[in-house]
Specification:
The protein is mostly helical. It has one domain (2-126): Cytochrome Bc1 Complex, Chain D, domain 2, CATH 1.10.760.10. Helices cover 62% and strands 0% of the residues. The protein has helices at residues 2-39, 55-65, 69-81, 92-98, 108-120. The longest helix is centred in the first third of the chain and has 38 residues, at 2-39.
Length: 132
C-alpha cells in the first residue's frame, strides 16, 4: 500500500512538472509572438540597437532592479501600459538616448506574456546578482 501511494505521489509530481514546463513553454511562445508582432520594429533582440534598447539589455536592467520574476513582470506590464521616467529601469543616460516608449495597446494577457518572455530570454551565463 505504501509503495502504491509513493508511486502515485511521484507520478503526480512528474505530471505536474511536465504540465508546468508545457505551460511555461506556451507562455514563452506567446511572449515571443507578441514581441515579433509589436516590439521588434523598435527593439532588436540584441545589439546593434534599432530605435530603442535591445531586449537583452532591458532584460539585464530588470534582473538588476528586481530579484523576483513576478514583481519584475508586474512592473514591466505597468510600464508598458503607462510609461514614465519614474518607472523606467534605464539609467538616466539611457532615457536621454532613447526617450520614453509609447504606451502599448496590448491586452493584459499579451503584456504579461511578452514581459515573461523578456525576463526569461536573458542568458543565464550573463546574470549578475540583483541590486534589490
Amino acid at each position: 500500500m505504501k509503495t502504491m501511494l509513493v508511486t502515485l505521489i511521484f507520478t503526480m509530481g512528474l505530471v505536474s512538472t511536465a504540465f508546468s514546463a508545457e505551460k511555461d513553454q506556451d507562455l514563452l511562445n506567446k511572449g515571443k509572438a507578441v514581441y515579433e508582432k509589436s516590439c521588434v520594429s523598435c527593439h532588436s533582440y540584441g545589439p546593434p540597437p534599432k530605435t530603442a534598447p535591445p531586449i537583452i539589455g532591458l532584460s539585464q536592467h530588470y534582473r538588476e532592479a528586481f530579484n523576483d520574476r513576478e514583481k519584475a513582470i508586474a512592473h514591466m506590464v505597468d510600464f508598458m501600459k503607462t510609461p514614465s521616467k519614474e518607472k523606467s529601469v534605464l539609467l538616466p543616460i539611457g532615457l536621454e538616448r532613447w526617450g520614453l516608449m509609447i504606451p502599448m495597446n496590448l491586452s493584459d494577457e499579451e503584456l504579461y506574456a511578452v514581459s515573461y518572455w523578456i525576463w526569461e530570454v536573458y542568458p543565464k551565463e550573463l546574470q549578475r546578482k540583483p541590486l534589490k
